[in-house]
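INFO worker-7 received task bundle
INFO bundle size: 2
INFO processing item 0
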Amino acid sequence: MRHGWEGVVLKLFRAKDFTFTVTGAEHVTERYRRVHFTDGNLRAVPRPQLVEQVKAGA
């Protein structure tokens, strides 16, 4: 996946791509829908690295 110039900046910060996959959904109320998804291994990233990626706009 290409990100243009933003991708270059993220690559410089060694940011990683994470793919979220929707695994299910359910209607809770008429105006609220609960979506279930996998996090693409996002929670396995060490905390300091994750904070740097968020600051970089990942």
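INFO item 0 finished
INFO processing item 1
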Amino acid sequence: MERMKLYPSYKASYLPDMGSIPAHWGEQRMKHSFVEVDERSITGDEEMLSVSHITGVTPRSQKNVNMFVAETNIGQKLCRPGYIAINTMWAWMAAMGVSEYEGIVSPSYGVYKPINETYNPNYLDYLLRTEVYQAEYNRRSTGVNSSRLRLYPDRFLDMRFVCPLRNEQDQIVRFLDWKVSQINRIINAKKKQIALLQEHKRAVVNEAVMRDAWSTRRLKTFLTESKDTVGDKSAEFDLLSLTKGGVIIRDVSTGKGKFPSDFGTYKVVRAGQIIFCLFDVDETPRTVGLSKNDGMITGAYDVFSISDIEPKFLEYYFIAIDDVKGLKPLYSGLRKVVNIDKFLQIQVPIPPITEQQSIVVQLDSQCVGVNKLIEKINTQIALLHEYRTRLISDVVTGKMDVRGVEVPQYEEMTEFTEDIEESDEDVEKTEEDSC
């Protein structure tokens, strides 16, 4: 942790969550530095940009995008270097940033053009996604619940933002770029460790469940679709989510994530049933999971009861298929949907039940150690993320004085990310998503 050096004197901030700011810093409304613009693409040939609370504004080509892709980009909003872009639906989570790129964003996004050079664009980019301003976006957004919250231009432009002198902003950016690069280097090394462990696990699973010598059976002979919905009893069910870590229970009490206003169409899930996501199959991080719990899950997914086969063997088999996105040849349409009748015709290699059970025991034993190690490294990464976030916040809001810090030469490093617009952990898919 950096040794905290304070400014000589402080004063109260206009923002209740900010506390104190350096006495010589100003606070000004955003409307004095930016104005909303609405320029549209004529050709649709510009780079499509993604706007995330994790990485700000970046080219969508660098992302694992798990969302609808329009047939044409004509009419999308233009966004230029130095402009602020705000993902309107996710502004309450600070899904915004200052663009370094020439490109286009969704017509529903807010785009704001600088009218002076008050702010260093990189300083402002750091500042916009700090927790103190995220809380203020949330307060200023309007809507019946989190999934309907919108931060409208007048409410954003009326916000006060801290404003150090420009040369001080420049030094803050130099310092943070250096320290963030150091942290990112450590994070990337740990992510490489995880990638190697996951590759090893994939090889072990694939070798165990893919055998040419076994006879095959169609999926429809041991899967029965379950279409029961929760209706008006959603309060009696835990909310489940399909993730790379399996089928998990979502904690809705935190308010994190985007949920529908009505869960009535969500499907009932019983422990031991298997869940498939049969659309966007090549972008969805994980398309299969065996549930250990009763609960409910979005109606966009397909839920099946299993008979006459070891359920965990079937899950391991489809995880191996999913790791290479083996269902891609079966999908069709813009949303890359796998027709359920076609899906149930898939031939699956099946060993005798005793061998299935033996394989499951073997894989559970081999994977448990790898999973624990991956979990440990992910915990370390989470702590590094927390430290990086706190460091950025402390420096850009004046809790830490870096004016006298000499920044050495260093190699700039960004974090390897797989975030989507927004992340799969934050978005609940709906029936409309699969259309």
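INFO item 1 finished
INFO post-check item 1: The CA atoms of residues 219 and 249 lie 27 Å apart.
INFO post-check item 1: Confidence is low (pLDDT under 50) at residues 419-428, 430-435.
INFO worker-7 idle
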